[in-house]
Amino acid sequence: MDNLDTLGRPLRDLRISVTDRCNFRCVYCMPREVFGPDFQFLDRDELLTYEEIVRFAKIAVESGVEKIRITGGEPLVRRDLPLLIQNLKKLEDLKDLTLTTNGALLADLAAPLYDAGLSRITVSLDSLDEDIFREMTDSTVSVQTVLKGIEEAQKVGLTPIKINVVVKRGVNEQSIVPIARYFKDLGHIVRFIEFMDVGNTNAWSLEKVVPAQEILEAINAELPIEAIQANYRGEVAQRYRYLDGSGEFGVITSITQPFCGDCTRARLSPEGELFTCLFGSTGYDFRSLLRTGASDDQIMKELVSLWGRRTDKYSELRTAATQDLIRVEMSHIGG
Q: How many CA atoms lie within 13 A of 226 on its CB side?
């Protein structure tokens, strides 16, 4: 029987952030003026161990979770990540195991991740233009480094590959059509994402959001498209295909067309706090339960109870009154 929240949404997806560290300083996620050299990241003993992550994931799967996505920070900076993938892959009834990365380290890790059992991968890439890319990531990594990682992922079989593109007004609108065309020809699925007000450090404002409709119009003007059905309940992207039959892409419309009504996702932070909304202010401490002798049944009871009380629908309620709420940073719990 499904474990449902107060709005009738089942728990199906668990996103596990394995680190709060990253080798990029993207302006919409970890701006350098906040996450600079003096920023205090989590100590190693504060992070959940791989054994603790696998234990919690097993309990979550037994509670109804079917899909696990590994996130960060940048997950590939955590040591021995393929070992975690290998052990998560062993979980019975887990239908999908995937990972989101910025791609900087992917060329070297694609094969070990695939060999460990990773099913597929999502890569964040906001522009093919070197200057725009470096402006958005605030890093010295080149676009070619990321493209090489994507190429290696495809070569070893980490497919289908999805490409996440955050679109920010005045920064990378001109990158929309080139990215759509480039990855269409390679057979990868691009997902254009409206700039979101996750956390409190990315200087979000509605004026910086490029609405999905504008994105669709830009693509359709050069590459004719049509809408297609979602793959499953709770899919975050609205899907479109190219009329020439060359593939599909998606748009994620958290700002202009919220999809809270079908949200089936929970997020586990690196130190073991569970958040039931991407825009949440506080998480529930499961690390203490994992480290103080609680049984699997006790932890499952807490998880089911927490989900059963869930009322989250932030994106549907977003107003000027919500803008000053303290929210967990995206770099801490993944997107």
A: 6
